[in-house]
Amino acid sequence: MRHRRTLYTRIYLHFIGVLFVVSLATLAIFAFGFRGEFMHGLADRYSRHASFLLGDVMNDPTKREETAKHLADIVDADLTVRDADGALLVAIGPEIPAPDAPVSKPQKIGHGRKSCFVAPIRDRQTGAMLGFVQANPWKDHGPSPVKHLLLLVVVLGLVGLAVRPLAKRISRPVAHLTEATRRFGAGELSHRIVAPGCRPGDAPTQPRRADELGDLMRAWNEMAGRIETLVKGHRELLANVSHELRSPLARMRVALELLPKTADSETRLADVEQDIAELDRLIDDVLTASRLEAAGLPSHPEPTSVASLFEQIRERATHDPLLAGKELRVSAPPELTLTADAALLKRALWNLVENAAKYGAAPIVVEAESSNGRVRLSVRDQGAGVPAADRTNVFAPFARVDKARTPDAAGRQGFGLGLTIARRVAEAHGGEIRLEGEPANRFVLDLPAKPSSP
Description:
The protein has eight helices and twelve strands. By secondary structure, the protein is α+β, with helices and mostly antiparallel strands. It has three domains: 7-136, 2-Layer Sandwich (Beta-Lactamase), CATH 3.30.450.20; 187-295, Signal transduction histidine kinase, dimerisation/phosphotransfer (DHp) domain (Helix Hairpins); 296-448, Heat Shock Protein 90.
């Protein structure tokens, strides 16, 4: 798996890399530029000064050598003194090779570290040429390169420690935004970005950063608040409208019961009663889906026997016209239990069985298995399965594979909420539902055997 660097790591390494390059460039400029020019200028002035001092002592060998040693000790440089014909008079350090051409003025001879500066030594009164002095400015190579590198490492380490808080300050809001977006997208509509370091009394959802990242976090919180308000309003409106429809439906049922029934009106009244029943089922599905999304699982789920739950589904199937003549097999270990809301779980499983009866083929098999603290409840049939184009949105509200909304064999028409309710029941229990197999004709409820601790 490819290693994924965080934004903090990228920013931090970028800062360190820039500092490293700048440090190397500074060292290079000083070593090859300013330091070289400085040394050349110093050696030139030094050789001039040496020629000036040696001019008075050229005829005295003792004083000449003492003056040369003094000049060499001042800057710890190699120094060579020659007469006007180029004969060696004094050599402090290794002898510097004599120049090939006569020396008449101060000049540089050679290149790089093999170069030296030459200056003529003249009599102060007559200006006659007495000899010349050679100075090597490169004897002292300065500190060792290893020391330079160690110093550079120490400086980069100190600067790295100083830069680390800055990198964290830049990257932390992005991490908060990523986590908040992930949780908000997972359904936690009340989640907001909480700025670290808020003082008591400050609004916890209003980050106090006075920069663009702070503005972005505040804008995200405001956006999340508006979306939460809109979604809650939509849910409440849907639930309230669905609930209010119950009353006129009940009055319609009573009115139908009171109408006189004749041979001609019997069929029409039966169709009306069937339509009312379908509307009642739709309202019940909408209310169930809305409550699951708004409230989730009841606060006290109970241990539930999976085998007993499957037996209730099998018993219900024997009386349901939709499953008449269709084989239903149930299989679950007798000792298998999970902590859940039995009514909701039964509703979810029955929706899956109904879906298989409507769109699949017998036999319909309901199975259960457990491993690693999780329970897998599956419903499969022998049909062609869900088409590949519909697998991504088959659990969405009002989504239907049968676009024509054809009534089933019992005359009932689905509304595309059965799988949605099953999905929300699974999520309310801390699990998930997925479609498996090829063809995709197996729905699996993957649930924890026990709810996680809050």
